[in-house]
Amino acid sequence: MPSINIGISEDNRKKIADGLSHLLADSFTLYLITHNFHWNVTGPHFNSLHTMFMAQYTEQWNALDVIAERIRSLGFPAPGSYTEYAQLSSIKEVTNVPNANQMVQILVEAQEATARTARNLFDIVNDANDQPTADLLTQRLDVHEKTAWMLRSLLA
Predict the structure, then answer these.
(1) Taking the CA of residue 88 as centre, how many other CA atoms within 13 Å lie in the half-sphere pointing to its CB?
(2) pTM listed for this prediction
(3) Which of 26, 27, 83, 144 has its CA 20 to 30 A from that of 108?
């Protein structure tokens, strides 16, 4: 494969790709949890939560491609297996079916964890003068922080 010369050193591209791999793993885990909750939510707020979770997992699904393609643009393979995601993600897998309020709380925590993972990349991204990744991170932070706020509001 031809060498990559986009104005970011290979070392910095590797560090950014590694950070984005963690973000991809958190994002995939969040997607999977949200979709699971969409399928399994019950109770008096079933319809509104079912619909809300669908909008959230759909947005999350679309973000996966953007993150993975940025990793590829930097010249590295994107992780794509459950094993890799389990190793890279900061979000714990949900193996039971919690009640609706617990689902919302779990999703608040997962949205916030994903935001922290994105935010932790800014130092290296800024040092590397990597505006496309900074833009991606800013967009993801906006989504995760707003979604966490909306979910938190359900628990008030």
Answers:
(1) 24
(2) 0.96
(3) 83
